[in-house]
Write a structure and sequence with these properties.
alpha/beta, Rossmann fold, Luciferase, domain 3, GMP Synthetase, Chain A, domain 3, ten-stranded mixed β-sheet, five-stranded parallel β-sheet, 16 helices, 27 strands, 26% strand, AMP-bd_C_sf
Length: 525
């Protein structure tokens, strides 16, 4: 009789296959440093064995601090092999914000990249639990290279299931504290495999990709893991550098890249861009915000490739709807309104529009967008109530309001939650307001998103001053510098006498936003 059982394909199984079948193929590079698949697998095994020496058991967390790096990839895969959960950290956060995430994740291990060494000292005083810290600094309990050299490069043999968590990515919360989105092996494998079916240009062994999105975002982590799972060479950029991007895209067999529209805009502003060679590029995927018709036309003139818009969120492992290349062609051929859409359900994904009572609305009516696919998160880490309010029978409540037309296209209209998306970064105004109310001159404050040509949305602080107080935008910015990450600090300030509230005292942010979004088709960027 045939043997039957649960033998899931896990992320690291794919890179192990390439290590056997294409051992000398380059899979990762950053600057002058390169790794082949065989070298990657050996270093992954070494880190996995090192983690096991700390008595790591499945489900325990390992945090990673620093700009994009090859070590991120090694850690993701080592965590996959031992059933640990990788928690890449937003290195731009203030020390107290970083400590909150590390403490909340109950991380057993913190890997600190060289790019973040200066953050380590101010971070230490805020850590509440005992964390094993690994870095290249001699002051730490474990020195990265010396620690790893103690362990062999044999593959650990641990049986894991498809629902084993692999990533925990933090997304800002409406209460001011970020929430850890737990994604499983199955979630990520579904995103990778179903994404391959959707792509006009499918990834393949020997092709290259450029990882420019931050690896603490699903866009960055998902792109990296997808590339490695497909046998590609992923060229990692520590941060987004438009000139470096142009050089690498010309010099390598890069066929598909992922960017936010703001990145596309910055690249197109480089002098002499029209003389660069992009003949190898077949598709640019973008997300986080829509693309304008003028920017799309300019981008197509320069890159001469297909474009696709992806709509999803961390809670769906980036998976949801897609505005495919054919939709973009139709938009340029006389249906520009399609560019305001985030597309139709992706392969294997379902979408429905719901009212506040949990009932599905009629076609054309505005409701909250719910997404469901095999990529839907397991849960928020240690937050049962938040999970219950955001996840219903596998349906993720996006917090975005929109409608669906007769052809099935989804159009975003507003944000039920107060989140602002600026240049691809998710920012919850509550976090910013909590910082601003500490200023002695501020009696009341509301932070909203307003249209911005470059970033889709920008933050505006609407402030009521305390009696006999004054405040300038420059003073506000300086006050916030040590309290929240730089990208969360509003650069615009508006002083008013009183914030609009309803009879129960609830702040009416929709009224504050309305004048800035008047004449636009959607109330979000």
């Amino acid at each position: 009789m045939p043997i039957r059982g649960n033998f899931p394909v896990l992320i690291h199984n794919l890179t192990e296959f390439y290590a056997r079948s294409y051992p000398d193929n380059t899979c990762l590079s950053l600057g002058d440093k390169q790794l082949t698949f065989s070298e990657l697998d050996a270093q992954v095994n070494q880190l996995a064995n090192a983690m096991l020496s700390l008595e790591f058991s499945p489900g325990q967390r390992v945090a990673i601090l620093g700009e994009n790096s090859i070590e991120h990839a090694i850690c993701f895969l080592a965590a996959s092999k031992v059933g640990a959960v990788a928690v890449p950290l937003n290195y731009r956060l203030a020390p107290v914000e970083l400590a909150y995430v590390i403490n909340d994740a109950e991380a057993r291990l913190l890997l600190v990249m060289d790019s973040a060494l200066e953050q380590l000292t101010p971070l230490r005083e805020h850590l509440s639990a005992k964390v094993n810290i690994v870095s290249s600094s001699s002051d730490d309990s474990l020195h990265w290279q010396e620690w790893l050299e103690q362990f062999d490069q044999s593959a650990p043999q641990i049986e894991l299931g498809r629902d084993t968590p692999i990533l925990q990515l933090y997304t800002s919360g409406t209460t001011g504290n970020p929430k850890g989105v737990v994604l499983s092996q199955y979630n990520m494998m579904s995103t990778i495999m179903l994404g391959n079916l959707t792509a006009a240009c499918r990834p393949n062994v020997g092709s290259a990709g450029i990882g420019i999105a931050p690896l603490f975002h699903i866009g960055g982590a998902g792109y990296l893991l997808s590339g490695l799972a497909n046998g590609m060479h992923i060229i990692i950029h520590e941060t987004f550098d438009p000139m470096k991007f142009l050089d690498d895209i010309e010099q390598n067999p890069v066929e598909v890249v992922f960017m936010v529209p703001a990145m596309i805009m910055f690249i197109l502003q480089i002098p002499g861009i029209e003389k660069r060679d992009f003949s190898g590029v077949k598709q640019i995927a973008y997300g986080a915000s829509p693309i304008s018709e003028s920017l799309l036309r300019q981008a197509i003139d320069i890159f001469k490739c297909d474009f696709a818009q992806l709509y999803g969120m961390t809670e769906t492992a980036g998976y949801g709807t897609v505005l495919v290349q054919n939709d973009h062609a139709k938009a340029l051929a006389g249906q520009p309104e399609l560019l305001r859409s985030c597309g139709r359900p992706n392969i294997g994904a379902s979408v429905k529009l719901m009212d506040s009572h949990g009932n599905e609305v009629e076609q054309g009516e505005i409701g909250e967008i719910w997404l469901k696919s095999n990529s839907s998160m397991l849960h928020y880490y240690n937050l049962e109530a938040a999970t219950a309010s955001s996840l219903t029978d596998g349906w993720v409540h996006t917090g975005d309001a929109g409608y669906q037309d007769e052809e099935g296209y989804i159009y975003l209209k507003d944000r039920i939650k107060d989140m602002v998306v600026s240049g691809g970064e998710n920012i919850y105004p509550t976090e910013v307001e909590n910082a601003l109310v500490q200023h002695p001159g501020i009696a009341d404050v509301a932070v909203i998103g307003v249209p911005d040509e470059k970033f889709g949305e920008a933050l505006l602080a609407v402030v009521v001053l305390a009696p006999e107080q004054s405040l300038t935008a420059e003073e506000m910015i300086e006050f916030c510098r040590d309290k929240i990450a730089g990208y969360k600090i509003p650069r615009q300030l508006k002083l008013i006498d009183q914030l609009p509230r309803n009879p129960s005292g609830k702040l009416l942010k929709k009224e504050l936003r309305a004048p800035y979004w008047e004449g636009t088709d959607r109330g979000i960027g």
